[in-house]
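Extended Data, panel c. Modelled sequence:
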Amino acid sequence: MFFYYICIGFFAMFFNHPLFLLGGSLSLIAVNLSHDGGRAMKQWAPLMIVMTVVIIVINPFINSRGTHVWFYIFRKQVTYEATLYGVVTALSLLMILLVFVSLNNVLNGNKLLYIFARILPRTAFLIMMSIRFVPLLKRRLTEIQDVQRLKGMTVTQGTLRERAKSGMSMLQILLSWSLEEAVETADSMKARGYGLGKRRPYIPYRMTKSDTYWLSYLVIFFALCVTGGLMGFGKIMIYPELGTLHLSFSDWIVFICGMAIALFPVFVEGREQLKWNYSI
């Protein structure tokens, strides 16, 4: 599954045709819906929507490069090239965010440690702690807010000074709590001899025959996408002059291969659902 996320990250950064990026974004939305019904994605939806809209709207006004003028505003030209570049940038970032939302659902700390612990044990542990850090702080801050609300301290009511004082007090509690637990975690790891010898995974993950088949599926389509991308398919020239948005037959082949990769978890989940419901 980790190789799948490598493929999708490559897809988001390697191709710049709007149709490819739009298809990838919609596919990742479907993937996140297949994981948990989209609960994790809904938490990040406001941020992703605002980010996408802001980039698309702001970029044409701060970048006037291009030869195809769309209109003028305050004596500043707005070009099709700058607008399309904003769309491409926004969709690429949206794909990356959707990838990390899905990654956080599928790959937990034990899986990440299993993948990287033998090669880079300290780096793997740091990555695992970093991924865990933001949700942990968010959960602790919610607990602190609930307790402080019972004491009459809130950041939503009162004067600006009172709200700022309450917010700083909650932040101080959050930092103290986090630092104390960090010290306890370090002492616990030291007492257990972490880093003194070769570490074995707590949960061993084994490659099955089905995993080998699916990995071959991803490798084949990924190779086709890379080959097509190196030949110039799935890409569009934006600067200095806008190229054509028309897709050739070879572009469509690369697009289908990319969608076959992007929708891979949906295919697997659908296959398992069919087996479960109809005993296929």
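The radius of gyration is 24 Å. This feature is highlighted in the accompanying rendering.
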